[in-house]
Design goal:
The structure holds two protein chains of two kinds. Chain A is an all-alpha fold. Helix content of chain A is 77%, strand content 2%. Chain A has helices spanning 2-17, 21-41, 54-69, 73-76, 78-86, 100-111, 114-127, 130-155, 169-179, 183-220, 229-244, 249-276, 281-294, 301-317, 323-329, 336-343, 345-368, 378-387, 394-424, 428-445, 450-492, 498-503, and strands at 44-47, 50-53, 158-159, 165-166. In chain A, strands 1-2 form a two-stranded antiparallel ribbon. The model of chain A is unreliable at 10-20 (pLDDT under 50). The two termini of chain B are 29 Å apart. Chain B has five helices and five strands; from the N terminus they run E-H-E-H-E-H-E-H-H-E. In chain B, strand 1, helix 1 and strand 2 form a beta-alpha-beta unit. The chains are: A mainly alpha, B alpha/beta. The interface between A and B is medium-sized, with 38 and 28 residues.
Chain lengths: 504, 144
């Protein structure tokens, strides 16, 4: 352990001597790769002026199908989800296990991140205000996809002799397909997903996060960190290293505690900004609706806005990617459906609440102060919107972005790890190799510029949706059966509501 | 029968004195004893995914340790007393969990040691014994 750390320090020192030219070299090397991957994954069908990436269509079709097939579980299950999180159905004899609240909080801290602050700004820049409408719509439909994937994650997880569990799409793809007599295909899909989530963990869950944290920090310090991306990256990698390799849980513990407060802090000030622009709220909302259906000024019109909105929503709430399924699989429960129902709340919190608030901040500011952001993009644009009302806001926002990025990286390091152990077994040495590699990519993320990074991570994350959603279609009847059985037992009182029992 | 006496143990000397008082009470009235150890735990904390994965294993070992180091030694020591004794280990907020157990085990009387909390701690989080006395539906004896 200490030897590892020494090696790490040596790496820092030798890199420090190599000066800032590294940034550009690596950037030039990765850009063509990004372009190639992007071209393959986002194969587009031109419809009029708009280009519809097949993969986005695939996701939306899945979400619509699951919403209808599960009988609008995203609406029907909502109340029950809150009852579960509140602990109404928690048997006192199983207290001390991971609670539904904890499972939800862990999964949410993995999804609430830079995407909620910066991704929305990207959506509004490219897709116009109308993209917001489709973003919300995608969040709503995505709730059903999450329900299906998280239920399956728990149902088909692997329990090991020492009591630890591994679950997620790679397990339900393999086991689910082989139950239906397609063993070879199931194995192939499981492996494909595991490779995808592993690479995705290095992209969206890692490089993109550290990159945006760096950009934001650099912006608030007026470019003082220009050319020092590698140093910032190494520092950040060092902290991640201490948590995931060194097992220094206290850092993670502190972050996990601060993140919810930052999220509340963020939403609170966002609401203030929105209300300070109260006179333009009707105009901003009108822009969202008219933009959603006319797509004025957006390449590809309404369809263009729709595509962008959906793309950003998935990028933010991860419905269809299957990552939350991995987080929920860690929870000990006899009823897989409960985890699915709880997970409904994730796209709701992440996309319908937080992303919408961000979109409204930008939307109202755009109306009140046209051209407020200048050339700023991503997080910087959101930051500029807040700055119109609170001069000091970029500082806490940069801090929040850093923490969001950090907690997202910790969550994704786990998702990637599960992909890795699926491929290479549960051995300790292999896990350490993975974790060190993960840290290296944290540093790399601060070196390459936003363009190629966004492309690579977007592409990889969308790529693993393909096997995942295919599996969800195949296994949907099983989820439906479980769901119907579960809700009929709730109705009959076979599954006890302990809160009600206590009140009597 | 609702003659059960609940004794909240925490492995401290105070807890032992509470148990002694409870034993005397039980012998006089012919009640049976329920010895409990509550492991402080909140369903609303925030965990990393790794912690969630390890949670089941950790819970089992916490329960085992509570039985081995706190409850079982007392149970052994009282084996000749002729009293009917049950033991229970439960995770949760201490005061609220004791109140729940009162209902579940038809408890008529609670014995608890005064828990050694610093003044600052009880100012911020409130005292467990005070909370129990407030919330309990049966008499509570706090043994110093």
């Amino acid at each position: 352990m200490s030897r590892l750390f020494l090696a790490f320090n040596l790496m820092v020192i030798s890199l420090a001597n190599a000066h800032a030219g590294i940034d550009e070299t690596i950037n030039n090397a990765t850009a063509p790769i990004a372009e190639l991957i992007g071209k393959i994954v986002f194969f587009k069908i031109p419809i009029g002026e708009a280009n519809l990436p097949v993969v986005v269509l695939w996701l939306v079709a899945g979400a619509v199908f699951f919403t209808i097939y599960m009988g609008f579980i995203n609406l029907r299950g909502f109340k029950h989800a809150i009852e579960l999180v509140r602990g109404d159905y928690a048997d006192p004899n199983s207290h001390g296990e991971v609670s539904h609240f904890q499972a939800l909080a862990t999964a949410v801290s993995g999804t609430v991140g830079i995407g909620n602050i910066g991704g929305v700004a990207v959506a509004v820049t490219v897709g116009g205000p109308g993209a917001t409408f489709w973003l919300i719509m995608a969040g709503f439909l995505g709730m059903s996809t999450k329900f299906v994937e998280c239920t399956l994650g728990v149902k088909y997880r692997e329990e090991f002799a020492d009591g630890h569990v591994s679950g997620g799409p790679m397990y339900y793809l393999r086991k689910g397909f082989s139950e239906r007599g397609m063993e070879g295909f199931g194995k192939f899909m499981g492996t494909f997903y595991a490779i995808g989530i592993f690479i995705g963990a290095l992209g969206i869950g890692n490089m993109f996060q550290s990159n945006q944290a760096y950009v934001q920090m650099n912006t608030v310090t007026n470019g003082a960190l220009d050319g020092y991306g590698w140093l910032f990256g190494l520092l950040m990698a060092g902290v991640v290293f201490m948590v995931i390799v060194g097992g220094i849980k206290s850092i993670a513990k502190v972050t996990e505690k601060i993140v919810p407060f930052m999220a509340i802090f963020y939403c609170f000030f966002a609401l203030i900004v929105i209300f300070m622009n109260i006179s333009v709220i009707p105009q901003a909302i009108a822009n969202i609706f008219s933009g959603a259906f006319t797509g004025e000024g957006v390449a590809g019109g309404a369809l263009g806005a729709m595509i962008i909105g959906f793309q950003r929503a998935v990028f933010s709430n991860e419905a269809g990617i299957g990552s939350a399924s991995i987080a929920h699989s860690a929870v000990k429960t006899n009823e897989p459906v409960t985890e699915g129902v709880v997970s409904l709340l994730e796209p709701f919190i992440d996309t319908i609440v937080i992303c919408t608030i961000t979109a409204l901040v930008i939307g109202t500011t755009q109306v009140a102060y046209p051209g407020f952001a200048g050339d700023a993009q991503g997080v910087a644009m959101t930051s500029a919107a807040f700055q119109t009302k609170f001069e000091w806001f970029p500082y806490p926002l940069a801090f929040a972005a850093l923490l969001f990025a950090f907690s997202t990286m910790i969550s994704w390091s786990y998702y990637g790890l599960k992909g890795w152990t699926y491929l290479f077994g549960e051995g300790e040495a292999g896990q350490t190799i993975y974790k060190i590699m993960f840290c290296a990519f944290v540093a790399l993320g601060c070196v390459v510029q936003l363009g190629p990074i966004l492309d690579i991570s977007d592409a990889l994350v969308f790529l693993i949706c393909v096997p995942n959603i295919l599996g969800l279609y195949f296994l949907a009847p099983i989820v439906k059966r479980e769901m119907e059985s579960y809700f009929s037992r709730i109705k009959s009182g076979e599954i006890k509501n302990f809160r009600k029992a206590r009140a009597q | 029968m609702s003659d059960n006496i609940l004794v909240a143990l925490d492995g401290s000397e105070c807890g032992k004195r509470a148990l002694n008082a409870a034993v005397k009470h039980a012998k006089l009235t012919g009640s049976s004893l329920v010895l409990t150890y509550v492991i402080d735990w909140s369903p609303y904390s925030f965990n990393t995914p790794e912690e969630n994965e390890q949670r089941h294993k950790r819970r089992e070992s916490e329960i085992q340790r509570a039985h081995d180091s706190v409850l079982n030694p007392e149970l052994m020591a009282l084996s000749d007393s002729g009293l009917e004794i049950k033991t229970v280990v439960r995770h949760g907020k201490i005061a609220a969990t004791l109140v729940d157990l009162t209902r579940e085990y038809s408890i008529a009387q609670i014995y608890i040691g005064r828990i050694g909390e610093s003044r600052l701690h009880s100012m911020i989080f409130g005292s467990v014994t005070a909370a129990l006395v407030q919330a309990s539906s049966v008499p509570v004896t706090v043994v110093p």
